[in-house]
Amino acid sequence: MDERAGKFVSFTSIYLHGQHFGEAFGIAGIHEEMGPLMLNTGVIRYDAEGDITFGINIYSNRLARLIAIRT
Q1: How far apart are CA 23 and CA 50, in angstroms?
Q2: What is the DSSP string of 14-70?
C-alpha cells in the first residue's frame, strides 16, 4: 500500500467507520426536539490523479422522519 492509500485507510477508520454521531469530528450533539446529530458517508471518490473526496451527509433522524412524512 502506498502512502496515499495508507492515509485514506487511516482517515476512514478514524473518522468514518462506526462514527454515526460526529464524535470523531467533534460535532456530536443532541437537540431536544430533533434528537442526535447523525452522519452518513455518501459518495467516496479515490481517483488516479490523487484526489480523494468524501461526501458526508449530516442530519437529524427526527428531521429526516418529518421530511419523509410531509413528502
Answers
A1: 28
A2: IIITT--SSTTTT---EETTTEEEEEEEEEEEE-TTS-EEEEEEEEEHHHHHHHHHH
Split into its structural domains, the chain has a count of 1
List the domain range (segments joined by +) for residue 44. 3-70
> Is the separation of the CB atoms in 68 and 52 below 8 Å?
no
Residues in CB range of 20: below 8 A, 6 or more apart:
38, 39, 40
**What integer is the mean pLDDT of 25-35?**
84
Residue with cell 437529524: 60
- Reply yes or no on whether the pLDDT at 24 is more than 80: yes
CATH label of the domain that carries residue 41: 3.30.70.360
pLDDT, tens digit, for every residue of 31-50? 887 788 888 888 888 887 87
